[in-house]
Amino acid sequence: MENFFEQRAKKVLKYLKVTERYDEKHRPRPFFVEFTGSPDSGKTTTIDELYKFFKALGFKTRRPQEGAEVIQIPRTTPLYNIRTCDYARTQLIDQANDPECDLMIFDRCVFDAYCWMLYWRAKNLLTDEEVELYQQFFLSEFWVNKLDAVYFVVCAPEVAMKRSKAVSLTDRLGNFTNPQTIKVLVDRFQLAYNILSPRFPQLRIIDTSKMDKQEMVEYFANETLAAMEKKIAAEGVVKAV
To answer: InterPro entries in the record, alphabetically (predicted)?
Structure first.
């Protein structure tokens, strides 16, 4: 028997599976979702499960490799985050007109880069003017409005450290996986959300500190399906299965 999430997802899939999918005038474009946030907040776990869920239901689902796993620029320069953003941004642009894609889930995209510019300004490696320049570029309407849902996923540093050590071969702390840095990153994502959310209604900030894995996955499945349903309803094409 189909569960509540499966029933909703199948209605979304029916919306996507139209005969003509050639350009934005004649077909619905794919749905795009971005996850970003602080370390060990549950992003990867959630992305994995959402990918499997939608894939199993017949969605042509894509999950681009995270830019951090591809880009070889040292992480000691703002160019690193600029480049990882560009890696994801180009896929967002290209896939928007691909009829072989129904859903793409990003592990960090343009909103992630916006937030990281605040980090590099605090390190005095960017000026205020440079931060403004890059941030405005990342938020260009040419691509940012294609993101249907964006999640800033955060959790308390002590919870993040506990999750990190649950499966680990070392007790060494990384540059970004220590309580002090995690706290700074959580604060920056909160600041960015406060600035951007009035302009971008697709933004959500979610604290997963008190959620277990099942609760996280169900929460984000519900939020993602709700974003899809809202878009379909706005286009006036909701149909019963």
So the answer is: P-loop_NTPase
